[in-house]
Design goal:
The complex is a heterodimer of chains A (about 280) and B (about 140). Chain A has about 280 residues and is of the alpha/beta class. Chain A has 2 domains: about 1-215, Rossmann fold; about 220-280. Chain A is about 30% helix and about 30% strand. Chain A is built from 10 helices and 14 strands. Chain A has helices spanning about 40-50, 70-75, 95-105, 110-120, 130-145, 160-175, 190-195, 215-220, 230, 270-280; strands spanning about 1-15, 15-25, 30-35, 55-60, 65, 80, 150-155, 180-185, 200-205, 205-215, 220-225, 240-245, 250-255, 265. In chain A, helix 6 (about 160-175) links the parallel strand 7 and strand 8 (about 180-185). The longest helix of chain A is centred in the middle third of the chain and has 14 residues, at about 160-175. Chain B is mainly alpha-helical. Chain B folds into 2 domains: about 1-95, Winged helix-like DNA-binding domain superfamily/Winged helix DNA-binding domain (Arc Repressor Mutant, subunit A, Orthogonal Bundle); about 100-145. In chain B, about 65% of the residues lie in helices and about 5% in strands. Chain B contains 6 helices and 3 strands. In chain B, a hairpin with a 3-residue loop joins strand 2 and strand 3. In chain B, helix 2 crosses helix 4 (about 70-80) and helix 3 (about 60-65) packs across helix 4. The radius of gyration of chain B is 20 Å and the shape is elongated. The chains are: A alpha/beta (about 280), B mainly alpha (about 140). The interface of A and B includes residues 173, 174, 176, 179 and 218 of A.
Amino acid sequence: MYAIEMNHVKKTYGAFAMNDLNLVLPMGCIMGLVGENGAGKTTAIELLMHAVKKEEGDIKILGVDNESTDFLQVKEEVGVVLDEPYFPEVLNAVNVNSIMKRTYKNWKEEEFFAYVEKFHIDKKKKFKDYSKGMKMKLSIAAALSHNPKLLILDEATSGLDPIAREELLDLFNEFTREEDHSVLISSHIISDLEKICDYVAFLHRGTLKFCEEKDMLHEIYGILHVGMKEAEDIPKEAVIGVRDNGYSREMLVKRDLMPKGFEVERAGIEDIILYMAKEGA
Amino acid sequence: MLTKAFLLYILNINSIGGKNLEIIIKNSSERPIYEQIYVQIKDMILTGVLSEGDMLPSIRGLAKDLRISVITTKRAYDELERDGFVNTVAGKGCFVAGTNRELIREENLKKIEVHMNEIRKLAKSCGITGETLIEMFRLLESEE
């Protein structure tokens, strides 16, 4: 069973076009969604939650079509955190609890206050007086407190300091200790995704460039440093991207297409994405 | 019956806990992570740190504890099972299989013999004495 299934999804906004998006997140896994600003990450998340209407294709969340009437029930089991926290400004954490208690059937009051405590959020402080990090943490506390099976996080760790981010990553890691818990997280901070994800999906200008197991990426791709002359011996089909610095050449290559004898180094996910984005430009 | 099964479960947990399962993952290593897990668990089985019937940590538990991918951990366990080192009992967990350690040792000894013969021939062809070879081996060992 899949937590998220997007098949041949299409959405256009003027010049922006998302064509034939296929994205599958198996149950129990964490998927990181990366891509430049405007690549379509937020659009993909909006499509998932049926906040915007798709033009073609079908989307299933926790096995339920998101345009069916059963989807309302599924929403109870999905925790969403958007990049801009959304609580009314004059509310404090106690108020948020009272509202959420009446919104979600599965709302766990104790759990919510446990998170509030854990995140060192002042219960009496109004939302408008929060720091950016606190706003984000309160949203995450709320998303986690109604017993969700799927967490969808749009840039949930951006704007936070490294220590707070680490704390949240640990939380997401622990969340998926349960076999039926899954996470989709979009972020620009690729090192964060590298720490916790099982899968990485790369969106570039509305197109999914790859959706691959994180550890497989390191097995498929590698970085090669060679002199200009040596570079001519490398088969073209093995080369994904090239960067010249005038003295030597750095390349992103496919390991299995490389002739023997070249020393291929480990490529980070950031390297892979940068080369692919450059090549596709 | 139920108590017995339960007791067995506790014993298994203890035996793993008592034996200090140690797995070290190096992200910088050229070796894929699944292989690092595979080799370390295999070595623990072959050296007797883990013995037949010991329960391994759950795939998900190990992945989350080590902060690595669930898929990668599953791959390591799958390979261990394929090579006969562990057995998966559906709904119960993953257990160390009864591998014939003597047999594996015997096979390794044979392999070493073949390599040594190769070394002997090479050494002889360029006049390297046995003492020098032993010296070289000691040096290699100390470097490890």
